[in-house]
Structure formats: structure tokens, C-alpha cells
């Protein structure tokens, strides 16, 4: 159908689950922000605000969703939450707990009960070495600009003051790579707290950060601004780290990343029990590691997506490596991403990339990012619920016009049911904190998507597996690297693996006998896409026309012809991911001419019709005919979106 053909089609009956609706309390959502001062160079306070041309979208303040939505992430940058409650501006030196205007410490009920001493630091140019700092000490940075860095000791607190409209700023002058870290030669320094500080203008290299580069556990970033650190990122979130009520904005690569840790998870080896809540994460990747864009239809050739006013002259020459955006997770187990406003990042808003497990994304506002809002790639056990997601992938989308560029993009990820699955985080702190896990099914539910370059898309690369030469590690199944599906195990056994074309599961082969077909591949499986609302108006999106951007507005599931070894028929993995891996759409609402892609990237019948997308699988052959397997064409039916409603189809 044409883009302008408007109809109302119902697949079954729209049933909004009463339990789900009851669980989602009514509230408003918002981009937040409003018109505010631009970022200033010297930062006289903790207030770092969005550019003056960024304003709240009225539609983002309305109730949304297939069920009532809760309040989402809101503005933090430049807001009173960043202003320290401590107003001392007097003499420097040691102080006793209870001194007026300073944080209390040392007893239950004080501001920092684990600390044993306190010291006031005046604004000056000084780098504090580890031997100069005592463990479990509250270091109060008096209002003003502190030019220097800190090598923290265990249990230290670095907290800023506020007086006469001026906060405490730790400034690296673009000459220091690190703001606050530990000296690795002295061992791990856990339990450090950073609060009410602006940390700016440090120069971490690409893939490094200004805060906690070493990856110490138990660090907290609270009520702080991390900005203008280039060309790397703001902070490493290691095991048991908390980022809360903070502003991470205009950093060269990321706001933060979670990858490096001195205490690793027993399964993934990376950070575990990480909490990211109530932050504003915006305008990161100012050094454009996402790379230049081309799109003849929009007149783009070597187009830099970062506007000139955001480009930082201290980036130097960087080589785009695909690792950038609001934040990125690597090898984590148990991460909570809750109630954040993630917006205007170049790259992806939030990206879980490679062997993450049990990531929860809930109640976030994710808007206006260059690429998608949420990516899950070669990862396990995720939950994406109750998020407001608007205007993402409007820049990168036209640069890749024939591939679905979704707001929520799932790539070789889900919850395994073939090889014993991936468990919830087993670390003691995950259990103590109540970190949720999602081992049975991954879920994308009760989200509202508005005018994104695409909706929800499930993709599985048929050629991506252990020992493929692209990924250095292997899957997390049956113990990960300690089990049969190690790189060595897959190198030896995957060439002889086979799929059963009746059950569409791998057969037991090799030594030791295992299902190496499914165990050595990262698979998109057991994902529920349900009770979401997807509003899509192509007239609101530049270039969203069949000529310039054919895949604009796409949803669906597919792979491509290929496979993990020579026994694979070209259509095996497309049929697996589409029909046999438990991926289900249901009870969604589509307002506008969304499209649906299925089975194979090269399917000549894509986008398929709503009737083909929703029709009973029993009326087709699961794309196994010779026409499909040799000609690359299949019309299904695909058996998706039971109980869903679409208003306006192409």
C-alpha cells in the first residue's frame, strides 16, 4: 500500500492486560530541560545546562503508552539537585564532624557514617597523590575552581560546597588525563564517593575515562556534573558502582561506560550490580567517534553529525571506532538503567554490547539521539519496559536507508532456552541489592515510541558466532569460557554442527557431545514485544520517503542468508529466528504507516503486508519452499502481533 493509504486493521482483539495496566501508575513524561543558559567555559557553579534552542516538547508531557505510563527521566543538568547543601567557605584544613556548613561523618545518621575524619581543601592548582590522602576521609572542596586531580584511597569522599552562587569545580585544563582515580600499584581502593562536584576539561584518551579509569568497585557519583572531558568518556562504572542524580554531558566519547573492573562477575568477567538512576545523559560523543555520514538523497557527503557549536577543539584527531554515544556496557551482569533522561547523544543513546546479562531499562526518557535509543547486541536476559522513546535515529537512519534503523534494536540477543540458559547475577551484592534478572524471556513492553526512524527490530546475523574472526570471545552458555562453548570448543566442533530442519534446533554432535549449532551462535530468541504504542508520522521526519529512506518506520524480525558452517542452507537461520526461537509480538498499538520486515534481509517481498505479518503460521511453510530457499522470497504468513491494532498502513 502507499504511504498515504489509511485504514484500521485489527489482528484479533486488543487486550491491554489488566494486571499490566494496574502496575503502571498514571503520570507524565517529559524531555524536561526547558530553555536554559548555554554551557560556560569556566563553570562558576555545578549548573551545566542544555543549549538555549532545546525545549520541552509538548507531546512529551502527555500521558502515553498502551497502558498509563509512570513519570520518566527528567532534566538534571543545571537544576537545583546539583547544588550542594553545604555552604562552608572558610578556613581550610582538618575539621570536626558537626562544624557548621560542613558534612557530618563518623557515626550512624551522619552524612558519611563510614568516614573517620574531614578536611577542607581550598581552590588551588594541585594534584593529590595517593600517599597524600588518608582512607575514609571526607574531602570538602570549597566553592571555586580546583585545578588538579586526586588519587583516592579506600572509602574517601570528595564533596563540593556551594556559596554565593558558586559551586566546586575540579578542572583538568585539558592537560590531565584523570580527575579522580586510584593508584593501581597500591591495590583496589573501593567505596569512594563523589558528590556535588563539577568535573570538567580532563583529557582521557579514547576508550578511557576521567573518573575511575582503574575500575574500582563500590564507587558512587552523586549530584555531580561530568562535562567537556575529551576525547574519551566521563566515568567507568565498575562493579557495585552507582551513578545517580548526575549530569553527564558533552563528553568526547561517552557519558560513561561499564567495562573495566577490578572485581569481575563470575560468569561474564565484567562489572556487576551497577545502578544508573535519575541522571541526565546528553550531548556526548562531541569528538564524533560515530564517523561521517553519506546520503545523496539528503545531500550528505562526509557529513559530520555533530553541530559546530558542540565540537570540542581539544578532541584532536580521532578515528571512529563505533564505540560512542550516551553510554555503553560490555560484559556486565546486572545493570539497572532507570528514570534517566538520555538525549541528543551522537551514536546510540544506550548500548549493551557483547555478553551483557540481566540488563533492565525502565522508566527512562530517551529522545533525539543520532542512532537508536536502546541497543542490545550479543547479550542476554534484558527487560525494556515503560520507556518514552522519541525522535531517535533520524540522523544515522538516512545514512543506511535500506536497513531497518530501529529505536529499539535487538541484535543476536535474548534469553536462551536451548542450552540451559543464562542465570541471574549470582554475585552476593546483586542479591543483596535486589537486582532483577530475566533468564526465561526477554521483554520489550509498555513502551511508547514516537516518530523514530524505526520501531522495534529483532536481527540475527547468520554469520556471527564464536571463532568467526570478528568477536574475540564466545557465548555465555553452559558456563561461558569454562564450558564446552569456548572459542577452542567452537573452533573444533562448529564445522561439524547440524540443524534439524523439522524441529529447527541444533543436533547433538562433536566432542564432548553438545548442540554446537545453537551454543556457538549468539541468537535472538525468546523476546516478547508486547503492549507497546508506536506512533509514526513520516511527515515529521526529514527524508522519510520511499525514494530517500525506504526502510523508514520499519519493525520486524529477520536474518540474512548465510550460516555458521558449510552445512547451513541459506535460509536456515532466517527461518529459525522468525519461526522457531520464541520471538513474539502481541497486543501492540501502531498509529501511522509503520512497516514490517520479516524472515530474510534479502526477502524480495519486504516490507510484508499486515495480513502477511499477522496471518496464521499454519497456513504457510515457514519459508522452507524451494522458491524461498533458492529465490529469497517469502510472504509468510508470520503469525505475529496477535491482539494488536494498526491504524494507517502502507
Report the biggest beta sheet as strand number plus sense, adding barrel if it closes.
Answer: 17 strands, mixed
Mean pLDDT rating: 90
Strand segment count:
45
Specify the number of helices.
8
Radius of gyration based on Cα positions: 25 Å
Q: What structural class do you assign from the helix and strand content?
A: mainly beta
Portion of residues within helices: under 10%
Into which percentage range does the β-strand content fall? Answer: 25-35%
Shape: globular
First and last CA, distance: 4 Å
Low-confidence stretches: 1-70
Signal peptide: 1-25
Keywords: Signal
Pfam families: Beta_helix (PF13229)
InterPro entries: Beta_helix, PbH1, Pectin_lyas_fold, Pectin_lyase_fold/virulence
Written account of the structure:
This is Right-handed parallel beta-helix repeat-containing protein. InterPro entries: Beta_helix, PbH1, Pectin_lyas_fold, Pectin_lyase_fold/virulence. By secondary structure, the chain is mostly beta strands. It has a domain of 379 residues. The chain contains eight helices and 45 strands. The chain has a 17-stranded mixed β-sheet that branches. A 14-stranded mixed β-sheet has the order 2-3-5-7-11-14-17-20-25-28-31-34-39-42. Strands 13-16-19-24-27-30-33-36-41-44 form a ten-stranded parallel β-sheet.
Amino acid at each position: 500500500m502507499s504511504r498515504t493509504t489509511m485504514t484500521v486493521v485489527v489482528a484479533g482483539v486488543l487486550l491491554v492486560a489488566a494486571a499490566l495496566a494496574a502496575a503502571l501508575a498514571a503520570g507524565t513524561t517529559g524531555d524536561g530541560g526547558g530553555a536554559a543558559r548555554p554551557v560556560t567555559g569556566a563553570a562558576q557553579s555545578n549548573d551545566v545546562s542544555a543549549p538555549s534552542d532545546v525545549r520541552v516538547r509538548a507531546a512529551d508531557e502527555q500521558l502515553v503508552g498502551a497502558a498509563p505510563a509512570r513519570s520518566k527521566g527528567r532534566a538534571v543538568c543545571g537544576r537545583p539537585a546539583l547544588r550542594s547543601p553545604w555552604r562552608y567557605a572558610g578556613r581550610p584544613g582538618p575539621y570536626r564532624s558537626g562544624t557548621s556548613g560542613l558534612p557530618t561523618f563518623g557515626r550512624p545518621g551522619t552524612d558519611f557514617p563510614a568516614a573517620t575524619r574531614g578536611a577542607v581543601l581550598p581552590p588551588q592548582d594541585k594534584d593529590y597523590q595517593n600517599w597524600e590522602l588518608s582512607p575514609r576521609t571526607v574531602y570538602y572542596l570549597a566553592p571555586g575552581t580546583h585545578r588538579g586531580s586526586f588519587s583516592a584511597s579506600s572509602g574517601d569522599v570528595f564533596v563540593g560546597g556551594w556559596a554565593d552562587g558558586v559551586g566546586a569545580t575540579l578542572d583538568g585544563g585539558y592537560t590531565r588525563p584523570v580527575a579522580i582515580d586510584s593508584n593501581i600499584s597500591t591495590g583496589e581502593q573501593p567505596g569512594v564517593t563523589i558528590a556535588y562536584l563539577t568535573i570538567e576539561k580532563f583529557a582521557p584518551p579514547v576508550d578511557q575515562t576521567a573518573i575511575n579509569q582503574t575500575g574500582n568497585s563500590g564507587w558512587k557519583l552523586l549530584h555531580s556534573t561530568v562535562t567537556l572531558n575529551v576525547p574519551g568518556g566521563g566515568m567507568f562504572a565498575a562493579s557495585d558502582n552507582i551513578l545517580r542524580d548526575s549530569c553527564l554531558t558533552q563528553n568526547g566519547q561517552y557519558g560513561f561506560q561499564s567495562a573495566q573492573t577490578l572485581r569481575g562477575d563470575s560468569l561474564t568477567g565484567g562489572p556487576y550490580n551497577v545502578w544508573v538512576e535519575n541522571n541526565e545523559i546528553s550531548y556526548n560523543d562531541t569528538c564524533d567517534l560515530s564517523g561521517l555520514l553519506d546520503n545523496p538523497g539528503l545531500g550528505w557527503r562526509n557529513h559530520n553529525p555533530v553541530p559546530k557549536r558542540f565540537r570540542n577543539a581539544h578532541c584532536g584527531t580521532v578515528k571512529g571506532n563505533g564505540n560512542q554515544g550516551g553510554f555503553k556496557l560490555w560484559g556486565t551482569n546486572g545493570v539497572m538503567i532507570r528514570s534517566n533522561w538520555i538525549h541528543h547523544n551522537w551514536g546510540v543513546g544506550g548500548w549493551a554490547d557483547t555478553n551483557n546479562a540481566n540488563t533492565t531499562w525502565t522508566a527512562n526518557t530517551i529522545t533525539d539521539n543520532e542512532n537508536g535509543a536502546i541497543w542490545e547486541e550479543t547479550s542476554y536476559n534484558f527487560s525494556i519496559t515503560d520507556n518514552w522513546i522519541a525522535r531517535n535515529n533520524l540522523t544515522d537512519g538516512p545514512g543506511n536507508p535500506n536497513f531497518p534503523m530501529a529505536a529499539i534494536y535487538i541484535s543476536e540477543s535474548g534469553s536462551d532456552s536451548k542450552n540451559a540458559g543464562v542465570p541471574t547475577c549470582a554475585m552476593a551484592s546483586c542479591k543483596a541489592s535486589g537486582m532483577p534478572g530475566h533468564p526465561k524471556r526477554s521483554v520489550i513492553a509498555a513502551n511508547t515510541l514516537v516518530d523514530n526512524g524505526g520501531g522495534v527490530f529483532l536481527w540475527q546475523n547468520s554469520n556471527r558466532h564464536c571463532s568467526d574472526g570478528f568477536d574475540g570471545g564466545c557465548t555465555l552458555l553452559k558456563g561461558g569460557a569454562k564450558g564446552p562453548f569456548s572459542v577452542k570448543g567452537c573452533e573444533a566442533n562448529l564445522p561439524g554442527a547440524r540443524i534439524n530442519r523439522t524441529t529447527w534446533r541444533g543436533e547433538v554432535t562433536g566432542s564432548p557431545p553438545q548442540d554446537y549449532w545453537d551454543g556457538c551462535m549468539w541468537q535472538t530468541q525468546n523476546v516478547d514485544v508486547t503492549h507497546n504504542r508506536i506512533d509514526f508520522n513520516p511527515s515529521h521526519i526529514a527524508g522519510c520517503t520511499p525514494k530517500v529512506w525506504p526502510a523508514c518506520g520499519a519493525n520486524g524480525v529477520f536474518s540474512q542468508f548465510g550460516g555458521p558452517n558449510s552445512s547451513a542452507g541459506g535460509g536456515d537461520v532466517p527461518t529459525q529466528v522468525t519461526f522457531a526461537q520464541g520471538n513474539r509480538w502481541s497486543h501492540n498499538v501502531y498509529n501511522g504507516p509503520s512497516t514490517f520486515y520479516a524472515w530474510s534481509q534479502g526477502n524480495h517481498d519486504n516490507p510484508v503486508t499486515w495480513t502477511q505479518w499477522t496471518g496464521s503460521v499454519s497456513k504457510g511453510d515457514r519459508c522452507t519452499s524451494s522458491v524461498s530457499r533458492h529465490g529469497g522470497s517469502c510472504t509468510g504468513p508470520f503469525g505475529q502481533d496477535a491482539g494488536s491494532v494498526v491504524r494507517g498502513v502502507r
